[in-house]
Amino acid sequence: xxxxxxxxxxxxxxxxxxxxxxxxxxxxxxxxxxxxxxxxxxxxxxxxxxxxxxxxxxxxxxxxxxxxxxxxxxxxxxxxxxxxxxxxxxxxxxxxxxxxxxxxxxxxxxxxxxxxxxxxxxxxxxxxxxxxxxxxxxxxxxxxxxxxxxxxxxxxxxxxxxxxxxxxxxxxxxxxxxxxxxxxxxxxxxxxxxxxxxxxxxxxxxxxxxxxxxxxxxxxxxxxxxxxxxxxxxxxxxxxxxxxxxxxxxxxxxxxxxxxxxxxxxxx
Length: 268
Ligand SMILES: Nc1ncnc2c1ncn2[C@@H]1O[C@H](COP(=O)(O)OP(=O)(O)O)[C@@H](O)[C@H]1O
Ligand SMILES: Cc1ncc(COP(=O)(O)O)c(N)n1
Prior knowledge:
Layout: E1 6-14, H1 20-31, E2 34-46, E3 49-55, H2 58-71, E4 76-79, H3 85-98, E5 103-105, H4 122-130, E6 136-137, H5 141-148, H6 155-167, E7 172-175, E8 188-191, E9 196-199, H7 212-225, H8 230-246, H9 262-267
Parallel strand pairs: 1-2, 1-4, 4-5, 5-6, 6-7
Antiparallel strand pairs: 2-3, 7-8, 8-9
Helix pairs in contact: 1-7, 2-3, 3-4, 5-6, 7-8
Adenosine-5'-diphosphate (ADP) binds next to helix 7 and helix 8.
Enzyme class: transferase
Keywords: Kinase, Thiamine biosynthesis, Transferase
Family: Belongs to the ThiD family.
C-alpha cells in the first residue's frame, strides 16, 4: 500500500497567507507531503504588519493534537509561533508522551514588522521544554542571541551559539543567515552535533521576505516526512527558500510573501 508522508505544523495562522500555518501547508504540498495543522493563535496580519493576535485556548490546542494523534500521526512536524509558555509546555508534553519524531523547532519570537509573536516569559519555557525535543532547531541570528544570551558578530560567534544550543538539547541546529548585513551572502550554518556545514545562498535585495523562516523550517519537516536525511533536508530547504525569494509575487504593499510555487516549477 502507498504510504503517503504526512507532515504537521503547530503554529499561528497568518490571515495574509505568507507566513505561519499558511506558508507551512503550501510548502508541504509543494514538496509532496500531506499537510496537517494545529493552530496555536489566530493573527490578523497582512504585508504591512500584525493588526491583532488571538491565542487559541490551550485546551483547544491539545484537542487538535489529540485528533491528529488518534488518527493521523505525522512522520515529521514543525513548530512555529507558539505564543505562550502555557502552549509551549502543553505541546512539549504531548510530543514527549507520544514520542513524535522528526521535530523541527522554529523558535519564532518577533515578526519582521516588529510584532511580538512570543510572550516574554515564554522564552525560558522554549529552552526548558521544547528545545530538548528538537531534531533540528532553526533560529535566525536575533533568536539565537536571545536563546544563548550572547551576541553574535562573527562566524565563530555563530558556531559557538550552535554548540550552546546543542548543549541545551537540540540534536541539530541551523543558524540562519538572513539577518547578516546586506553585503553578505545569506549563508546558513548547519551543525549536526559533530560537524559544521555551510548552506550557501545568494542574497536577493528585496523586501518580499515575509515568512522566509516559516517556509524554510516547513521545507525541512516535509523532507524529513519523506524519509530524507537531515543533511539532505536542510539542503533542499535552502534551495526551496532561495527559489521562493528569487521569484517574488509582488503581492501587497509591505513585506510581501515569497513564492511557494517557484521551486517545483524550476524542477519541472
Ligand atoms: N534576502 C535574502 N536573500 C536570500 N536568502 C535569504 C534572504 N533573507 C533570508 N534568506 C534565507 O531565508 C531563510 C530564512 O532566514 P531568515 O530570514 O533569517 O529567517 P527568519 O524569517 O526566521 O528571520 C534562510 O535560509 C536565509 O538565509
Ligand atoms: C503567524 C506567524 N508566524 C510566524 C511569523 C514570522 O514570519 P516573519 O518573520 O517572516 O514575519 C509571522 N509573521 N506570523
